[in-house]
């Protein structure tokens, strides 16, 4: 597993570096970055989710999906408790962003291509559970961090995101055993195959916009990244070891938890008038570091998860 993840991350890193260079050379502008991000969010990722559910109905998969939901919920709770105790409010005006960044993973843009490459369709099938729980928690607990309040209207908006709708549609098609016509499904698979390169290009464009000098001089960013990339996934690994969850579900949950800080934090910081520059710096720094930390964490987990 370690070798598979390392090789895939190396490929993803090369794409991210290429995107970084393209942005610096102004081959791609910020408008182009937004367009690619929207394409990935609105079209490519939903196509991938729907295609992975186009498999024969299997009671074992359904049971595994339910276990994956429970594992995802526990993983997020572990992260929330960790951040609550290890990110204090005192002398830290941006503590709410630090806590958000330490808990919530980029399980879509980074998680999908990584898990798809090492665990295939079944891994992405289980990952949809983590992504659904992620959306529920970000639009409840995450929003309460940013706004100090919560409303059902905002939760409804989060639940109407393209990924949630695509997941629900895919689950319905799976349970009613409806198979998309072969030609249409083949076309959707072509679109889904764009996920990895586009996701890493978006990450590369984002890193290219960050002020690296300021990032490297901010100790808070180091601490948040350490919590997100090392402490949280190791705590999740301990939970997975104790509960003896099956191999594929365990690794899907672990990789999702070990992904860098979510791009959602930057988008929500912009929307709710918070320090979005700082949010994007956490995202950029943790994304670069994750290319090293994810293989390290999975290597350690290999001694406990079988």
TrEMBL record:
<comment type="similarity">
    <text>Belongs to the auxin efflux carrier (TC 2.A.69) family.</text>
</comment>
<dbReference type="InterPro" id="IPR038770">
    <property type="entry name" value="Na+/solute_symporter_sf"/>
</dbReference>
<keyword id="KW-0812">Transmembrane</keyword>
<feature type="transmembrane region" description="Helical">
    <location>
        <begin position="35"/>
        <end position="53"/>
    </location>
</feature>
<keyword id="KW-0813">Transport</keyword>
<feature type="transmembrane region" description="Helical">
    <location>
        <begin position="125"/>
        <end position="146"/>
    </location>
</feature>
<feature type="transmembrane region" description="Helical">
    <location>
        <begin position="6"/>
        <end position="23"/>
    </location>
</feature>
<feature type="transmembrane region" description="Helical">
    <location>
        <begin position="65"/>
        <end position="87"/>
    </location>
</feature>
<dbReference type="GO" id="GO:0005886">
    <property type="term" value="C:plasma membrane"/>
</dbReference>
<protein>
    <recommendedName>
        <fullName>AEC family transporter</fullName>
    </recommendedName>
</protein>
<keyword id="KW-1133">Transmembrane helix</keyword>
<keyword id="KW-0472">Membrane</keyword>
<dbReference type="InterPro" id="IPR004776">
    <property type="entry name" value="Mem_transp_PIN-like"/>
</dbReference>
<feature type="transmembrane region" description="Helical">
    <location>
        <begin position="282"/>
        <end position="305"/>
    </location>
</feature>
<feature type="transmembrane region" description="Helical">
    <location>
        <begin position="220"/>
        <end position="243"/>
    </location>
</feature>
<dbReference type="GO" id="GO:0055085">
    <property type="term" value="P:transmembrane transport"/>
</dbReference>
<keyword id="KW-1003">Cell membrane</keyword>
<feature type="transmembrane region" description="Helical">
    <location>
        <begin position="249"/>
        <end position="270"/>
    </location>
</feature>
<dbReference type="Pfam" id="PF03547">
    <property type="entry name" value="Mem_trans"/>
</dbReference>
<feature type="transmembrane region" description="Helical">
    <location>
        <begin position="99"/>
        <end position="119"/>
    </location>
</feature>
<feature type="transmembrane region" description="Helical">
    <location>
        <begin position="158"/>
        <end position="178"/>
    </location>
</feature>
